[in-house]
Amino acid sequence: MNILGIIPARYASTRFPGKPLVDIAGKTMIRRVYEQASKSALLKQVYAATDDARIEAEVKSFGGNVIMTSADHRSGTDRCAESVQKIAGDWDVVINIQGDEPFIHPEQIDLLCSLFQSAETQIGTLVKKAHRDDEVFNPNTIKVTVDKNGYGLYFSRSPIPFLRNFPQEQWLANHTFLKHIGIYGYRKEILLKLTQLPEGNLEKAESLEQLRWLENGYRIRTAFTELESVSVDSPEDLGRLPG
User: Fold this and answer.
1) Is residue 219 within 8 Å of 122, Cβ to Cβ?
2) I want to staple 66 with a disulfide (CB 3.0 to 4.6 A). Which of 59, 158, 219, 233 is the partner?
3) Which residues form the domain of 149?
């Protein structure tokens, strides 16, 4: 199976402009993500996909693969779709690697890749057990429920499910809540179809693109991980990175 890893990296960011080029202990963010992704045993190639010449130049400076894409994409999914159509190769699966996790674990990437050993997997992602109340009740931490076969039923900013018979401070003790780890894999043909879907009502309500896919009948298979890396959404998050 030919699996392509793509790191969408745009320069413009409301909370952190130029984030891919920020210095983290002597290396740029994009370089650290690229180097971690390159340690994956199952990715055949890794590419950064950007719309900015400065990011392109940085990736080329450390010998990485990079491709220029449109500045008009609404999501990393769309940037991945354009990229896979431009990058030479007969690709079966595309892994969308978050460009703001400089210490992403290559084992997580391999776990996600392994989901596509099943021909039934259209889209894959990772989930992790929540251990703290702030993970369950923080709307910026996405929660997910899955069926008995590991397929996502729903993703939400709200705690799901609602535990009717317990006060909120007892929810974690009486149910296993799952949070979403935002890395995706797609079969190439499915990825290209996803980008043609109009925005759905559920996506508009929660601002979560995966709800558009579910609303249109696509299935998202999940795998459980105990690993998680710090994502950098704002300059303040740099202080949370491991030393």
Assistant:
1) yes
2) 59
3) 3-233
Q: Does 18 map to a domain?
A: yes
Query: From CA 47, how far away is CA 219, in angstroms rounded?
Result: 26
19-61 pLDDT tens trace: 899 999 899 999 999 999 999 999 999 999 999 999 999 999 9
**Per residue in 185-237, pLDDT tens?**
999 999 999 999 999 999 999 999 999 999 999 999 999 999 888 776 666 66
Is 241 a domain residue? no
Domain of residue 181, CATH code: 3.90.550.10
pTM (2 d.p.): 0.94
